[in-house]
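Ops channel
N.P.: pipeline sanity check, posting one input/output pair.
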């Protein structure tokens, strides 16, 4: 009996020991799992329960011009925050802060009364304001260092550089295109909480400072940019135009040295401007080029061997019917050489050359010049333009002189640079280097050849022709520079009315495109004036701006004159005949019919400029013959102009 009791006692001891042993092993295993295997995860969860992270605005890398001048930078500023749960006297705190921060007291009271551990009161305070608030040592009011984007040159290169939002992500320009490169790493600070989740205090030190992103060095030259913006603003203002664009590019590399829009804006206060003012029209907008497009039509014809520079064309005395349309020239001529077609900007001559080249061949050349496709410029929102794939009826003739095709200013400048540099299309670019925050070069960009478009010989012949445009008797004499050979072309195009979708009788785009020095091109310059008032010809409204940009830029770059100065070359007392002040304007409907019942004014003795103004105000389309002062006219003054009337004015040199 006794043996059995001892036996069961031993069994109970073993069972109890086994149970306690298993429990002990379970505790040890659980402890190992929590303390070793789950240590990092549980530590993170614990931190989240008693800490609150507040992200700070990341710093961005700088944007500089090619000489190292800062165009955009991030500066450290204090941002003011509040810990509402720690503020006992909400009304008193609000009353003190309101006049300093410029926030209504009632609004501050509402914001400080919320049941939160952290709120921003005002971001990016000026140093003076921050010091005043700090000196008050208010309970529950603190500061955190944040980065703010600043543009020290304000309007200069605003459309290229762009701007950022409060995030601060890039919203336009280089800031947007290279946002991920320029944007740095976000910093943060920590809020401590108690076991019930209530805020204890915000630590005075930032746990992690925001680190800056990479800096970007542009191909832009601030001085040339300033020159370009100044001359463009003057041209737009002088012609009472709606807007303007200008571009300066290195002819042989594709580097953009200046890109300007007018009106412009201040990126430090971009919210004050309309979307139209913030838009980079040079890249994002397309327009009909008008007569500047004749450069590429003639280049295609010469390079393909379809025509020779010495060929003569019948320009039909200024009026040429194609099917049911009539093409007009502002300078009626009977026969012109190819060079004279360029010089006098003959629509008829260009149309006939276009017909000779043919749709297939001309279209191929124009696309090789980059029209109808993106250039690849490193800016957002580039326009493609419009170059039809299938041409019908008179499309071939119209496209030959720049009507029925649209392009952007960057496309036009890039294509013209191919003429200037001997026939090679270069990819335009704005970013030259990307620099790490330690100053080392992360990436470098080099000139990039897209393709050869025309031969060197063809480019040389076209250059010679373009020089005649700025020479005596050409349409672009206002672009001529003393001491330099200038190759260029005027253009005046009608705009399409957005309501009627037909060509507007009054709205024009005047332009001048060219490169200097013509004998060894360095700069390709394009100036476009949108809707000038009064005289609207590119040779009048855009050519002077071209001259101003070219003259000042060449002086700045220390490119010496290679030609004798005009004043020294001319014998004393000689006079140069007045050049024509207008360019050929393709009529949107290609058929000029005066309004019924219009009365012929008396133009006797008027200058060509005055005649054009009167003609435009009264809606009368007139053929102009010769140069000088009005000597003869048909119909006579006071006679009604019928639809079948032949309206013309003959000019003769004044005595």
């Amino acid at each position: 009996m006794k043996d059995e009791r001892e036996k069961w006692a031993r069994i109970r001891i073993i069972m109890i020991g086994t149970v306690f042993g298993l429990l002990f092993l379970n505790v040890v295993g659980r402890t190992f799992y929590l303390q070793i295997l789950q240590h990092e995860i549980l530590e993170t969860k614990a931190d989240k329960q008693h800490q609150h992270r507040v992200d700070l605005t990341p710093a961005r890398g700088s944007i500089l011009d090619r000489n190292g001048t800062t165009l955009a930078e991030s500066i450290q500023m204090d941002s003011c925050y509040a810990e509402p749960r720690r503020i006992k006297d909400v009304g008193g705190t609000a009353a003190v802060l309101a006049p300093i921060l410029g926030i209504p007291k009632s609004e501050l009271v509402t914001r400080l009364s919320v049941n939160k551990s952290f709120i921003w009161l005002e971001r990016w305070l000026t140093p003076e304001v921050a010091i005043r608030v700090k000196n008050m040592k208010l309970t529950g009011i603190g500061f955190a260092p944040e980065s703010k984007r600043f543009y020290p040159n304000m309007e200069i290169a605003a459309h290229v550089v762009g701007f950022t939002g409060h995030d601060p992500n890039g919203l336009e320009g280089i800031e947007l295109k290279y946002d991920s490169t320029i944007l740095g790493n976000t910093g943060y600070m920590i809020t401590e909480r108690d076991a019930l989740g209530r805020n204890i205090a915000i630590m005075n030190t930032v746990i992690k400072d925001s680190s800056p992103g990479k800096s970007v060095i542009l191909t832009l030259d601030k001085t040339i940019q300033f020159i370009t913006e100044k001359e463009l603003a003057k041209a737009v203002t002088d012609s009472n135009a709606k807007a303007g664009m200008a571009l300066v590019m290195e002819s042989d590399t594709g580097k953009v040295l200046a890109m300007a829009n007018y009106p412009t804006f201040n990126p430090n206060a971009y919210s004050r401007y309309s979307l139209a003012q913030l838009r980079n029209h040079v890249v994002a907008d397309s327009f009909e080029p008008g007569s500047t497009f004749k450069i590429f039509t003639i280049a295609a014809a010469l390079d393909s061997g379809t025509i020779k520079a010495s060929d003569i064309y019948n320009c039909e005395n200024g009026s040429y019917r194609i099917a049911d349309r009539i093409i007009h020239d502002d300078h009626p001529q009977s026969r012109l050489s190819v060079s004279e077609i360029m010089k006098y900007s003959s629509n008829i001559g260009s149309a006939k050359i276009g017909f000779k080249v043919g749709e297939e061949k001309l279209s191929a050349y124009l696309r090789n010049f980059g029209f109808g496709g993106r250039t690849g410029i490193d800016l957002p929102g580039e326009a493609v333009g419009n170059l039809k794939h299938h041409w019908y009826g008179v499309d071939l003739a119209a496209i030959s002189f720049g009507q029925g095709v649209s392009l952007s200013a960057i496309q036009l400048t890039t294509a013209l640079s191919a003429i200037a540099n001997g026939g090679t299309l270069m990819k335009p670019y704005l970013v030259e280097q990307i620099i790490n925050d330690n100053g080392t070069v992360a990436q470098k960009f080099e000139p990039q050849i897209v393709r050869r478009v025309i031969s060197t010989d063809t480019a040389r012949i076209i250059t010679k022709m373009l020089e005649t445009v700025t020479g005596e008797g050409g349409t672009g004499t206002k672009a001529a520079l003393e001491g330099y050979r200038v190759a260029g072309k005027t253009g005046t195009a009608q705009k399409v009315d957005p309501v009627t979708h037909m060509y507007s009788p009054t709205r024009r785009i005047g332009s001048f495109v060219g490169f200097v020095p013509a004998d060894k091109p360095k700069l390709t310059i394009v100036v476009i004036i949108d809707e000038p008032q009064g005289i609207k010809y590119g040779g009048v409204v855009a050519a002077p701006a071209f001259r101003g940009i070219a003259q000042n830029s060449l002086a700045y770059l220390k490119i010496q004159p290679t030609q004798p100065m005009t004043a020294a070359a001319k014998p004393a007392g000689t006079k140069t005949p007045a050049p024509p002040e207008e360019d050929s304007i393709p009529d949107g409907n290609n058929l000029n019919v005066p309004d019924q019942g219009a009365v012929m004014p008396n133009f006797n003795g008027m200058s060509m400029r005055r005649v054009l103004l009167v003609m435009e105000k009264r809606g009368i389309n007139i053929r102009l013959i010769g140069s000088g002062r009005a000597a003869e006219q048909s119909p006579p003054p006071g006679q009604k102009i019928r639809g079948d009337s032949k309206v013309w004015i003959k000019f003769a040199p004044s005595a």
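N.P.: looks fine end to end. DSSP finds 22 helices and 28 strands in the chain.
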